[in-house]
């Protein structure tokens, strides 16, 4: 009997922190869940979460039966979460079916979380191919894994998320890690779904930090949001709609502004040659991002990527739609005789301009290359360079037109 008690306590300590539905060893209490081990915190008033940013969230997650605490009455909100622990939580949070036919990993045989992992595999949350060397259940969960599993769940929960996943394959993520080239292309749609639905909001600097581990507090908050989104229509999420439009056309113009297309769309002139009319250079557009600046509060999932909300906007940045254009440019002119005005004279439209982003320091911090004060340091004859420009669209009564080589063009308007 003494040996059995010691074994039970050891199991409780190893698996502490999360309520699991798996039984406690083989004893008279074998049918009881691990929550038996957490009587000390049965009220949910954990002594180490008072004043924590996730205090209310943890209390709610506890009340819903998603999480539990430790025997000493703590929750340990900043403790890291393992793959096995997260699998157990996520399988409890999802409203999808029981899941059958899932492939179990060899290193999960007899593990307390085997059933949870097998179920998530069957439901499509976990791609077994991602763990070809074993699931390694005690490995700390990365934020990328957390986001990927939830995105897979959304895709399985409603066909509209499957389409959203496809639409965001080539989108621009509203995070400095994307503009710095730190997010692999294959990761983009997974991050887009959870960022676009608000399941994951990112850190204060806009970063998503996919390679970092995640904490118990973060998981509690994110799972509650996931529960609200699972099974919904993807089109109800404005931020996701922006990223879907950017992913399919290169711009969020229709989603964020009052403009509508008259002929063609901006994708007609994306990633194709545009020879400036005065032969001063060759342009290729890659992204045309629009931010609604008609009111004090900027409107766009991309606003914090380009504009420092802590700084006062200039008069030229008010009551308009601000635009940020990513392009590649090859100059035909020698730097000694060229200037931005000469290049601007070569545009056949009014909304695409060679104009550096106003806040150079903020742009640089977010990995956004723009024209420096001395443009000759970036733009050189015969050298193809990629950078971002800033301009604007009138908020009312405006017609816009732009063309590219090979008779490609677009017209759009916000006139009634």
TrEMBL record:
**InterPro entries with a match to the protein in the record:** Cell_Envelope_Struct_Comp, SLH_dom
Q: What is its EC number?
A: 3.5.1.28
* Pfam families with a match to the protein in the record: SLH (PF00395)
What top-level class of enzyme does the UniProt entry assign?
hydrolase
Extract the signal peptide range.
1-21
GO MF terms here are: N-acetylmuramoyl-L-alanine amidase activity
Membrane-crossing residues? none
Superkingdom, natural source:
Bacteria
Residues covered by the SLH domain: 41-104, 105-164, 171-237
List the keywords (alphabetical): Hydrolase, Signal
List the PANTHER family hit by this protein, alphabetically.
Answer: OUTER MEMBRANE PROTEIN ALPHA-RELATED (PTHR43308), S-LAYER PROTEIN _ PEPTIDOGLYCAN ENDO-BETA-N-ACETYLGLUCOSAMINIDASE (PTHR43308:SF5)
Q: What is this protein called?
A: N-acetylmuramoyl-L-alanine amidase
Q: Which organism is it from?
A: Paenibacillus nuruki
